[in-house]
Amino acid sequence: MGITPLLVVTTGEPAGIGPDLTLALAASWGPLEARVVAVGDPELLAARAARLSLAVRIVPLADGEAVPACRDGVLPVWSVPLRAPTEAGRLDPGNAAYVLETLDVAIVACRQGRADAMVTAPLHKGAIIEGGYPDFTGHTEYLRDACGVDEVVMLLATERTDPALRVALATTHLPLRAVADAIDAGGLRRVITILAADLQRHFGIARPRILVCGLNPHAGEDGHLGVEERDIIAPTLAAMRDEGVDLVGPLPADTLFTPRHLADADAVLAMYHDQGLPVLKYAGFGEAVNVTLGLPLIRTSVDHGTALELAASGQADAGSLRVALNVAARMARDGAPRA
Ligand SMILES: NC(=O)c1ccc[n+]([C@@H]2O[C@H](COP(=O)([O-])OP(=O)(O)OC[C@H]3O[C@@H](n4cnc5c(N)ncnc54)[C@H](O)[C@@H]3O)[C@@H](O)[C@H]2O)c1
Ligand SMILES: N[C@H](C(=O)O)[C@H](O)COP(=O)(O)O
Q1: Tally of structural domains, the chain
Q2: Which residues does the annotation say bind a divalent metal cation (predicted)?
Q3: pLDDT digits (tens, 9 = 90+) for 267-295
Q4: Residue 251, domain member (yes or no)
Protein backbone atom coordinates (compact mmCIF):
# COMPACT_ATOMS: atom_id res chain seq x y z
CA MET A 1 0.00 0.00 0.00
CA GLY A 2 1.27 3.45 -0.85
CA ILE A 3 1.60 6.34 1.57
CA THR A 4 -1.35 8.06 -0.08
CA PRO A 5 -4.42 6.03 0.92
CA LEU A 6 -6.46 4.38 -1.79
CA LEU A 7 -10.22 4.89 -1.44
CA VAL A 8 -12.68 2.72 -3.36
CA VAL A 9 -15.94 4.47 -4.15
CA THR A 10 -18.92 2.26 -4.96
CA THR A 11 -21.18 4.24 -7.27
CA GLY A 12 -24.42 2.80 -5.89
CA GLU A 13 -27.84 2.55 -7.50
CA PRO A 14 -27.26 3.28 -11.22
CA ALA A 15 -30.58 5.10 -11.61
CA GLY A 16 -29.85 7.34 -8.63
CA ILE A 17 -27.47 10.19 -7.89
CA GLY A 18 -24.46 8.06 -6.90
CA PRO A 19 -22.90 8.17 -10.39
CA ASP A 20 -23.58 11.93 -10.65
CA LEU A 21 -21.91 12.70 -7.33
CA THR A 22 -18.88 10.54 -8.06
CA LEU A 23 -18.46 12.33 -11.40
CA ALA A 24 -18.94 15.75 -9.81
CA LEU A 25 -16.09 15.02 -7.42
CA ALA A 26 -13.91 13.66 -10.21
CA ALA A 27 -14.42 16.91 -12.10
CA SER A 28 -12.79 18.72 -9.19
CA TRP A 29 -11.27 16.56 -6.46
CA GLY A 30 -10.39 19.43 -4.15
CA PRO A 31 -7.80 19.07 -1.39
CA LEU A 32 -8.25 15.31 -0.97
CA GLU A 33 -5.21 13.48 0.42
CA ALA A 34 -5.97 10.15 -1.23
CA ARG A 35 -6.15 8.28 -4.49
CA VAL A 36 -9.61 7.22 -5.61
CA VAL A 37 -10.94 4.46 -7.80
CA ALA A 38 -14.66 4.13 -8.52
CA VAL A 39 -16.42 0.80 -8.92
CA GLY A 40 -19.16 0.65 -11.51
CA ASP A 41 -20.04 0.36 -15.17
CA PRO A 42 -17.72 2.58 -17.25
CA GLU A 43 -20.32 3.10 -20.00
CA LEU A 44 -22.94 4.18 -17.49
CA LEU A 45 -20.48 6.64 -15.97
CA ALA A 46 -19.43 8.02 -19.36
CA ALA A 47 -23.07 8.42 -20.43
CA ARG A 48 -24.00 10.18 -17.19
CA ALA A 49 -20.98 12.49 -17.49
CA ALA A 50 -22.12 13.44 -20.99
CA ARG A 51 -25.70 13.98 -19.80
CA LEU A 52 -24.43 16.25 -17.03
CA SER A 53 -21.97 18.03 -19.36
CA LEU A 54 -19.15 17.11 -17.00
CA ALA A 55 -15.74 16.92 -18.63
CA VAL A 56 -14.65 13.73 -16.89
CA ARG A 57 -12.70 11.03 -18.69
CA ILE A 58 -13.58 7.52 -17.48
CA VAL A 59 -10.48 5.33 -17.31
CA PRO A 60 -11.20 1.62 -16.79
CA LEU A 61 -8.23 -0.01 -15.07
CA ALA A 62 -6.94 -3.48 -15.91
CA ASP A 63 -6.52 -6.09 -13.16
CA GLY A 64 -3.55 -5.16 -11.02
CA GLU A 65 -3.07 -1.78 -12.70
CA ALA A 66 -1.97 0.89 -10.25
CA VAL A 67 -4.49 3.59 -9.34
CA PRO A 68 -2.95 6.96 -10.22
CA ALA A 69 -3.04 10.12 -8.12
CA CYS A 70 -6.24 12.14 -8.39
CA ARG A 71 -6.39 14.44 -11.39
CA ASP A 72 -9.29 16.76 -12.03
CA GLY A 73 -11.34 15.47 -14.94
CA VAL A 74 -10.17 11.86 -14.65
CA LEU A 75 -12.03 9.00 -12.96
CA PRO A 76 -10.22 5.65 -12.71
CA VAL A 77 -12.71 2.77 -12.59
CA TRP A 78 -12.73 -0.85 -11.59
CA SER A 79 -15.29 -2.14 -14.07
CA VAL A 80 -18.44 -3.99 -13.08
CA PRO A 81 -20.98 -4.44 -15.89
CA LEU A 82 -24.60 -3.39 -15.46
CA ARG A 83 -26.97 -6.34 -15.57
CA ALA A 84 -29.73 -4.33 -17.27
CA PRO A 85 -29.84 -1.04 -19.18
CA THR A 86 -30.42 1.84 -16.82
CA GLU A 87 -32.29 5.10 -17.06
CA ALA A 88 -31.77 7.94 -14.61
CA GLY A 89 -34.61 8.10 -12.11
CA ARG A 90 -36.13 4.73 -13.02
CA LEU A 91 -35.32 1.76 -10.76
CA ASP A 92 -34.72 -1.65 -12.29
CA PRO A 93 -34.35 -4.47 -9.74
CA GLY A 94 -32.53 -6.33 -12.49
CA ASN A 95 -29.47 -4.33 -11.44
CA ALA A 96 -29.55 -5.52 -7.81
CA ALA A 97 -26.76 -8.02 -8.48
CA TYR A 98 -24.73 -5.25 -10.15
CA VAL A 99 -24.99 -3.01 -7.10
CA LEU A 100 -24.03 -5.83 -4.75
CA GLU A 101 -21.11 -6.82 -6.97
CA THR A 102 -19.72 -3.29 -6.70
CA LEU A 103 -19.82 -3.68 -2.92
CA ASP A 104 -18.16 -7.08 -3.08
CA VAL A 105 -15.33 -5.72 -5.23
CA ALA A 106 -14.68 -2.96 -2.70
CA ILE A 107 -14.93 -5.26 0.32
CA VAL A 108 -12.50 -7.79 -1.15
CA ALA A 109 -10.04 -5.05 -2.12
CA CYS A 110 -10.08 -3.64 1.42
CA ARG A 111 -9.81 -7.04 3.06
CA GLN A 112 -6.92 -8.04 0.81
CA GLY A 113 -5.09 -4.79 1.56
CA ARG A 114 -5.31 -3.56 -2.04
CA ALA A 115 -7.33 -0.59 -0.86
CA ASP A 116 -7.40 1.35 2.40
CA ALA A 117 -11.06 2.24 2.73
CA MET A 118 -14.39 2.02 0.95
CA VAL A 119 -16.79 4.90 0.48
CA THR A 120 -20.30 4.06 -0.62
CA ALA A 121 -22.63 6.15 -2.74
CA PRO A 122 -26.30 5.41 -2.02
CA LEU A 123 -28.12 2.29 -3.11
CA HIS A 124 -31.84 1.64 -3.12
CA LYS A 125 -32.74 -0.98 -0.53
CA GLY A 126 -36.12 -1.74 -2.11
CA ALA A 127 -34.57 -2.39 -5.52
CA ILE A 128 -32.08 -4.82 -4.02
CA ILE A 129 -34.82 -6.65 -2.14
CA GLU A 130 -37.03 -6.82 -5.21
CA GLY A 131 -34.06 -7.93 -7.27
CA GLY A 132 -33.88 -11.22 -5.42
CA TYR A 133 -32.25 -10.41 -2.08
CA PRO A 134 -35.19 -10.44 0.35
CA ASP A 135 -33.01 -10.26 3.45
CA PHE A 136 -31.12 -7.17 2.35
CA THR A 137 -31.61 -4.19 4.68
CA GLY A 138 -28.65 -1.90 4.00
CA HIS A 139 -24.90 -1.54 3.48
CA THR A 140 -24.32 -1.69 7.22
CA GLU A 141 -25.82 -5.13 7.71
CA TYR A 142 -24.43 -6.39 4.37
CA LEU A 143 -20.92 -5.40 5.43
CA ARG A 144 -21.40 -7.02 8.85
CA ASP A 145 -22.33 -10.31 7.22
CA ALA A 146 -19.72 -10.10 4.45
CA CYS A 147 -17.01 -9.49 7.03
CA GLY A 148 -18.30 -12.22 9.35
CA VAL A 149 -18.67 -10.08 12.46
CA ASP A 150 -21.54 -10.34 14.95
CA GLU A 151 -22.18 -6.67 15.46
CA VAL A 152 -21.49 -3.35 13.79
CA VAL A 153 -22.59 0.15 14.70
CA MET A 154 -23.97 2.84 12.43
CA LEU A 155 -22.62 6.26 13.36
CA LEU A 156 -23.50 9.49 11.57
CA ALA A 157 -21.49 12.60 12.34
CA THR A 158 -21.50 16.25 11.41
CA GLU A 159 -19.06 19.03 12.17
CA ARG A 160 -21.56 21.72 11.20
CA THR A 161 -22.43 21.93 14.90
CA ASP A 162 -20.11 23.01 17.70
CA PRO A 163 -19.25 20.66 19.25
CA ALA A 164 -19.48 18.04 16.49
CA LEU A 165 -22.59 15.90 16.73
CA ARG A 166 -22.17 12.12 16.49
CA VAL A 167 -25.21 9.88 16.62
CA ALA A 168 -24.95 6.10 16.79
CA LEU A 169 -27.81 3.64 16.59
CA ALA A 170 -28.53 0.65 18.81
CA THR A 171 -30.76 -0.81 16.07
CA THR A 172 -30.61 0.01 12.37
CA HIS A 173 -33.07 -0.82 9.58
CA LEU A 174 -35.95 -2.42 11.45
CA PRO A 175 -39.68 -1.81 11.27
CA LEU A 176 -40.63 0.24 14.33
CA ARG A 177 -42.80 -2.67 15.47
CA ALA A 178 -39.68 -4.84 15.87
CA VAL A 179 -37.45 -2.32 17.62
CA ALA A 180 -38.36 -2.96 21.24
CA ASP A 181 -37.87 -6.70 20.87
CA ALA A 182 -34.47 -6.15 19.29
CA ILE A 183 -33.07 -4.31 22.31
CA ASP A 184 -31.45 -6.70 24.75
CA ALA A 185 -28.63 -6.43 27.24
CA GLY A 186 -26.14 -8.45 25.20
CA GLY A 187 -26.68 -6.45 22.02
CA LEU A 188 -26.60 -3.13 23.84
CA ARG A 189 -23.35 -4.07 25.52
CA ARG A 190 -21.80 -5.06 22.17
CA VAL A 191 -22.91 -1.81 20.54
CA ILE A 192 -21.58 0.36 23.37
CA THR A 193 -18.30 -1.55 23.45
CA ILE A 194 -17.76 -1.01 19.70
CA LEU A 195 -18.84 2.61 19.89
CA ALA A 196 -16.50 3.46 22.78
CA ALA A 197 -13.57 1.61 21.20
CA ASP A 198 -13.99 3.14 17.74
CA LEU A 199 -14.50 6.65 19.10
CA GLN A 200 -11.07 6.21 20.64
CA ARG A 201 -9.47 4.59 17.63
CA HIS A 202 -10.95 6.61 14.79
CA PHE A 203 -11.89 9.90 16.41
CA GLY A 204 -9.00 10.24 18.88
CA ILE A 205 -11.24 10.57 21.94
CA ALA A 206 -9.38 9.05 24.87
CA ARG A 207 -12.39 8.41 27.14
CA PRO A 208 -15.56 9.07 25.18
CA ARG A 209 -18.59 10.33 27.03
CA ILE A 210 -21.68 8.75 25.52
CA LEU A 211 -25.24 9.92 26.16
CA VAL A 212 -27.74 7.08 25.84
CA CYS A 213 -31.37 7.64 24.88
CA GLY A 214 -34.23 5.82 26.48
CA LEU A 215 -36.55 3.93 24.18
CA ASN A 216 -39.90 5.09 25.50
CA PRO A 217 -41.39 8.53 26.12
CA HIS A 218 -39.70 10.15 29.12
CA ALA A 219 -37.31 7.21 29.31
CA GLY A 220 -40.15 4.98 30.47
CA GLU A 221 -41.35 7.22 33.33
CA ASP A 222 -40.08 4.77 35.99
CA GLY A 223 -41.71 1.83 34.23
CA HIS A 224 -45.10 3.46 33.79
CA LEU A 225 -44.57 4.19 30.07
CA GLY A 226 -42.41 1.23 29.13
CA VAL A 227 -40.05 -1.12 30.91
CA GLU A 228 -37.03 -1.39 28.59
CA GLU A 229 -35.18 1.40 30.42
CA ARG A 230 -35.77 -0.16 33.85
CA ASP A 231 -35.17 -3.78 32.85
CA ILE A 232 -32.51 -3.58 30.11
CA ILE A 233 -30.95 -0.19 29.38
CA ALA A 234 -30.30 1.18 32.89
CA PRO A 235 -28.81 -2.08 34.28
CA THR A 236 -26.55 -2.46 31.23
CA LEU A 237 -25.31 1.11 31.53
CA ALA A 238 -24.73 0.69 35.28
CA ALA A 239 -22.67 -2.46 34.75
CA MET A 240 -20.59 -0.85 32.01
CA ARG A 241 -20.09 2.31 34.07
CA ASP A 242 -18.62 0.10 36.80
CA GLU A 243 -16.20 -1.15 34.15
CA GLY A 244 -15.09 2.40 33.44
CA VAL A 245 -17.17 3.39 30.41
CA ASP A 246 -18.38 7.00 30.62
CA LEU A 247 -22.11 6.60 30.01
CA VAL A 248 -24.96 8.97 30.82
CA GLY A 249 -28.56 7.82 30.72
CA PRO A 250 -30.92 6.47 29.80
CA LEU A 251 -32.08 10.03 29.16
CA PRO A 252 -35.43 11.09 27.69
CA ALA A 253 -34.66 11.40 23.98
CA ASP A 254 -36.83 14.48 23.48
CA THR A 255 -34.59 16.66 25.64
CA LEU A 256 -31.27 14.86 25.28
CA PHE A 257 -30.57 16.68 22.02
CA THR A 258 -30.32 20.10 23.65
CA PRO A 259 -27.18 22.20 24.07
CA ARG A 260 -26.90 21.65 27.82
CA HIS A 261 -26.62 17.90 27.39
CA LEU A 262 -24.66 17.89 24.14
CA ALA A 263 -22.02 20.39 25.30
CA ASP A 264 -19.80 17.75 26.88
CA ALA A 265 -20.94 14.69 24.92
CA ASP A 266 -18.75 12.86 22.42
CA ALA A 267 -21.60 10.81 21.00
CA VAL A 268 -25.26 10.00 21.46
CA LEU A 269 -26.55 6.45 21.27
CA ALA A 270 -30.12 6.42 19.97
CA MET A 271 -32.21 3.30 20.28
CA TYR A 272 -33.53 3.37 16.73
CA HIS A 273 -33.08 4.95 13.29
CA ASP A 274 -35.68 7.71 13.41
CA GLN A 275 -34.99 8.60 17.02
CA GLY A 276 -31.44 9.75 16.25
CA LEU A 277 -31.06 10.44 12.55
CA PRO A 278 -33.65 13.20 12.10
CA VAL A 279 -31.77 15.30 14.65
CA LEU A 280 -28.42 14.60 13.00
CA LYS A 281 -29.80 15.34 9.53
CA TYR A 282 -31.56 18.48 10.71
CA ALA A 283 -28.21 19.71 11.98
CA GLY A 284 -25.91 18.47 9.23
CA PHE A 285 -27.68 17.17 6.11
CA GLY A 286 -25.43 17.56 3.11
CA GLU A 287 -22.23 17.64 5.14
CA ALA A 288 -22.58 14.61 7.40
CA VAL A 289 -20.86 11.26 7.11
CA ASN A 290 -22.06 7.76 7.88
CA VAL A 291 -19.36 5.49 9.33
CA THR A 292 -19.74 1.78 10.03
CA LEU A 293 -17.93 0.97 13.27
CA GLY A 294 -16.82 -2.50 14.31
CA LEU A 295 -15.71 -3.72 10.88
CA PRO A 296 -12.30 -5.10 9.97
CA LEU A 297 -12.15 -2.42 7.27
CA ILE A 298 -12.90 1.28 6.96
CA ARG A 299 -16.24 2.22 5.42
CA THR A 300 -17.80 5.64 5.18
CA SER A 301 -20.85 6.79 3.28
CA VAL A 302 -23.12 9.69 2.54
CA ASP A 303 -25.91 11.04 4.73
CA HIS A 304 -28.57 10.74 2.01
CA GLY A 305 -30.22 8.26 -0.30
CA THR A 306 -30.62 7.73 -4.02
CA ALA A 307 -32.74 10.86 -4.63
CA LEU A 308 -34.01 9.36 -7.89
CA GLU A 309 -35.78 12.57 -8.82
CA LEU A 310 -32.45 14.40 -8.93
CA ALA A 311 -30.52 11.84 -10.98
CA ALA A 312 -28.98 13.35 -14.13
CA SER A 313 -30.37 16.78 -13.20
CA GLY A 314 -27.14 18.34 -12.00
CA GLN A 315 -29.00 19.45 -8.86
CA ALA A 316 -27.65 16.84 -6.44
CA ASP A 317 -25.26 18.19 -3.83
CA ALA A 318 -21.97 16.28 -3.60
CA GLY A 319 -21.09 17.76 -0.19
CA SER A 320 -21.71 14.64 1.86
CA LEU A 321 -19.77 12.39 -0.53
CA ARG A 322 -16.85 14.83 -0.32
CA VAL A 323 -16.97 14.68 3.48
CA ALA A 324 -17.22 10.86 3.34
CA LEU A 325 -14.08 10.74 1.19
CA ASN A 326 -12.18 13.10 3.46
CA VAL A 327 -13.18 11.21 6.60
CA ALA A 328 -12.23 7.88 5.01
CA ALA A 329 -8.85 9.30 3.99
CA ARG A 330 -8.24 10.57 7.51
CA MET A 331 -9.29 7.28 9.08
CA ALA A 332 -7.07 5.36 6.66
CA ARG A 333 -4.09 7.54 7.56
CA ASP A 334 -4.72 7.53 11.32
CA GLY A 335 -5.98 4.13 12.29
CA ALA A 336 -5.21 0.66 11.05
CA PRO A 337 -8.36 -1.43 10.84
CA ARG A 338 -8.65 -4.49 13.05
CA ALA A 339 -7.29 -7.64 11.47
N1 LIG B 1 -26.17 5.29 2.06
C2 LIG B 1 -27.22 4.78 1.44
O3 LIG B 1 -27.10 3.86 0.64
C4 LIG B 1 -28.60 5.35 1.71
C5 LIG B 1 -28.81 6.36 2.65
C6 LIG B 1 -30.11 6.85 2.85
C7 LIG B 1 -31.16 6.32 2.11
N8 LIG B 1 -30.88 5.33 1.21
C9 LIG B 1 -31.95 4.79 0.34
O10 LIG B 1 -32.26 5.76 -0.64
C11 LIG B 1 -33.59 5.56 -1.09
C12 LIG B 1 -34.34 6.87 -1.06
O13 LIG B 1 -34.44 7.27 0.31
P14 LIG B 1 -35.16 8.57 0.82
O15 LIG B 1 -36.09 9.08 -0.22
O16 LIG B 1 -35.65 8.27 2.18
O17 LIG B 1 -33.98 9.61 1.04
P18 LIG B 1 -33.14 10.52 0.04
O19 LIG B 1 -31.98 11.00 0.83
O20 LIG B 1 -32.85 9.83 -1.23
O21 LIG B 1 -34.08 11.76 -0.29
C22 LIG B 1 -34.62 12.57 0.75
C23 LIG B 1 -34.71 14.02 0.27
O24 LIG B 1 -33.42 14.59 0.24
C25 LIG B 1 -33.12 15.07 -1.07
N26 LIG B 1 -31.70 14.74 -1.33
C27 LIG B 1 -31.11 13.55 -1.07
N28 LIG B 1 -29.83 13.60 -1.43
C29 LIG B 1 -29.59 14.82 -1.92
C30 LIG B 1 -28.44 15.48 -2.45
N31 LIG B 1 -27.25 14.86 -2.54
N32 LIG B 1 -28.55 16.75 -2.87
C33 LIG B 1 -29.74 17.39 -2.79
N34 LIG B 1 -30.87 16.83 -2.28
C35 LIG B 1 -30.79 15.56 -1.84
C36 LIG B 1 -34.04 14.32 -2.01
O37 LIG B 1 -34.26 15.02 -3.21
C38 LIG B 1 -35.27 14.17 -1.13
O39 LIG B 1 -36.01 15.37 -1.16
C40 LIG B 1 -34.17 4.48 -0.17
O41 LIG B 1 -34.07 3.22 -0.82
C42 LIG B 1 -33.26 4.50 1.03
O43 LIG B 1 -33.23 3.28 1.71
C44 LIG B 1 -29.65 4.84 0.98
N1 LIG C 1 -29.64 4.78 7.66
C2 LIG C 1 -28.91 5.49 6.68
C3 LIG C 1 -29.41 6.89 6.52
O4 LIG C 1 -30.57 7.12 6.82
O5 LIG C 1 -28.68 7.73 6.06
C6 LIG C 1 -29.06 4.83 5.33
O7 LIG C 1 -30.26 4.14 5.22
C8 LIG C 1 -27.89 4.07 4.87
O9 LIG C 1 -27.70 2.90 5.53
P10 LIG C 1 -26.56 1.94 5.05
O11 LIG C 1 -25.29 2.69 5.09
O12 LIG C 1 -26.61 0.82 6.00
O13 LIG C 1 -26.95 1.54 3.66
Answers
A1: 2
A2: 173, 218, 273
A3: 999 999 999 999 999 999 999 999 999 99
A4: yes
